[in-house]
Amino acid sequence: EWLFAIRTFLPFLAFWTALEAGEEIRRVRSIRYPGTGAERESRTVSFVVCMVEAPALMIFGCCVAAGLYGPYQAPVWLLNVGYGVCHGCGIFSTFVIALHLREESRVTRVFGYERRSIFEKYRLIIRAAFLLTVGADVAMAFLAIFVYHLMHRYKVIMLLFLVHLAIMQIIGALYFICQARALWGPLSDYLNQRPNLEARRKIGRLVFWITASATLMLWLSLAFVIAVYSMIYAIFISKGSLVF
């Protein structure tokens, strides 16, 4: 029963979220009016995040449905490659959203602060984050597919990759939480002005999803640390064999 739930419920969530992301991409592309600077920036951030997350979620859903976490219905290395591609996409999305929160909080808190697109202002940071997250995933997928015998023999390569992702995940989570905390000040000031019911509901939903995202990021950071420890223990302490 537990296995059936994993094979059905998790893929359903992944596919449903991917479809929602695809619908958001379609909605953003269908908008013809330019809108304000804030509206254009929000649409661009939404488009980039959904473009990155939609394929990653589809791949993750297929991997779970095919037996990720066992018993395996597909080659283990193929599932691990597919699952590995998803990690960097999520971390990259975290960095993009955190930079967006940073810009929104500064526009609200700093008098006379000029709004600029994060993709122009933080161009080098976003490119570096993309290479270190999504680029690392693609590189590991390439190595696992074309030089699988080296990956299987030299497991320290996988360990270094996992350590790299764990560091990026922790940095991304902490940075997101810091920017979300900075945004809470302007939101609190706005709530003190007693806005209408609809505005309070929108802010409530925003706070809920930011809190849920921060909690999930902390959990993923802990999971990465546990995974790194488990692999170090398997390779260097117990001298056990890892399944790839």
List keywords for this structure.
mainly alpha; 84% helix; single chain; 244 residues
Question: Can you walk through the features of this model?
Answer:
There is one protein chain. By secondary structure, this protein is mostly helical. The chain has eight helices and no strands. The protein has helices at residues 2-30, 37-65, 76-109, 118-121, 123-146, 148-153, 156-192, 197-237. α3 (76-109) runs antiparallel to α5 and α7 (156-192) runs antiparallel to α8 (197-237). The longest helix has 41 residues, at 197-237. The protein is globular, with a radius of gyration of 20 Å.
Which outline best applies? globular
Mean pLDDT: 81
Topology pattern, helix = H, strand = E: HHHHHHHH
- The total of helices stands at 8
Distance between the termini: 26 Å
Rg: 20 Å
Q: Give the helix proportion (percent range).
A: over 70%
pLDDT below 50 for ≥5 consecutive residues: which ranges? none
- Roughly what fraction of the amino acids lie in strands? under 5%
Provide the structure class: mainly alpha
Tell how many strands the DSSP assignment holds: 0
Describe the sheet with the most strands: none
Helix-strand layout with pairing:
Elements: H1 2-30, H2 37-65, H3 76-109, H4 118-121, H5 123-146, H6 148-153, H7 156-192, H8 197-237
Provide a short characterization of the protein structure:
About 85% of the residues lie in helices and about 0% in strands. It is built from eight helices and no strands.
